[in-house]
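TEACHING EXERCISE
Course module: macromolecular assemblies
Task: Read the component lines below, then compare them to the predicted structure of the full complex.
Student: A.B.
Group: 4
Components provided:
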Amino acid sequence: MNSQHFSTKERILGAAEQLFARLGFAGASLRQVTAAANVNLAAVNYHFGSKENLINEVFRRRLDELNAHRLQALEEALKRPAPDLEDLLGAFINPALDLSLDRGGGGAFVRVLARAYAEHNDALRKFLSDNYGHVMKRFHAAFAQRLPDLDKEELYWRLDIVAGALTYAMADFGVIKRKTGVTEQQHRERSAEHLIRFAAAGLRAP
Amino acid sequence: MNSQHFSTKERILGAAEQLFARLGFAGASLRQVTAAANVNLAAVNYHFGSKENLINEVFRRRLDELNAHRLQALEEALKRPAPDLEDLLGAFINPALDLSLDRGGGGAFVRVLARAYAEHNDALRKFLSDNYGHVMKRFHAAFAQRLPDLDKEELYWRLDIVAGALTYAMADFGVIKRKTGVTEQQHRERSAEHLIRFAAAGLRAP
DNA sequence: GTAGCATTTAAACGCTCGTTTTACCTACGA
DNA sequence: TCGTAGGTAAAACGAGCGTTTAAATGCTAC
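Instructor-supplied answer key:
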């Protein structure tokens, strides 16, 4: 299934994403990755130079798109007559949800992203901050406008909590298991609904 | 510093905790652990049987205490005249805060715990569920009593979100940095305050 | 058709991994 | 004092790791 329609590089990225999500960056070996991708072991070093660089490319492939979708969703939300907190939260959360539902490994990627947070890797944090910082600033400003009574620092705290809960929920850390008869998509959508409702109330806390 | 006052087992547990927090379970080798603990390489397999078992013991050492403290704090909260959600959340969150401030590695442990969530390791999940599931059940019952209008499943979802946000906050995943002039303790306490206020509002959401 | 480049392949490199083995120390009860 | 059990020590085990090499193959432009 993975063999014919995609290039060697693409197959390696896809397999790496799956295995990094399941086993971690240190836990997944290049032999496992190349076997899953049905390519030769040396292909990783030929196309990506090193395992470290392969990890970075796994991130880059997804983050640019997620980034753009969030800003686009925010723009659209702000065009509505009276956008509320739930609209803004949706603009932040739904693109992540869409990504996690994406056919072709997005669900694995959000788990990879959660692992990256847990790794506490400074180089990776800088990469994320450099590439995502402006998005968070943009959202912060939008939320601040809708929460004029909230102290600016307090808002930072609360958005940080929202980001944490989102990471946690999207990566399926939680103990809540999908019930039989509920599709993966329905489960994720319900996750997002609960998360948005919870986060909106949390942001509005006195 | 690590050499004289503690037994070999205790030194291994301490060093393993630090290195698992920094490098992950797969990333930290037994050679690194035993070198940091200043013990012989074979000591891990002699005292713990295997690396896998060492990991479990790292958890057991802290979680027994943490969950005992949580249950104790819950008991005390329920003895008050009119315990509210904030009291219950405090009983759940504050022991974790105390642990993270504990001299002697508690701060490292909460990062280990966060990694465990990210790892999604089934064996570890079963271990946690088997040994500490009753604590979550106890808290769930206490919250349910104070939120009679909330659907039971809805409450599960929300408590799951709270646990996620707590894990995230305690492990210092967030982007909020401690300001100069604010001690680590103050920073953590402020984290807990924000988290409790946010979570209480989230739980009360319509 | 063939030269030239990009890609794939199989094999090997040196190294580190978790674990096991075997010998040695040390303290304590008989 | 000696035997013994509990702990430590150094060394080695086979396996797997990321990476490199060099030969084989595929593909395009002439």
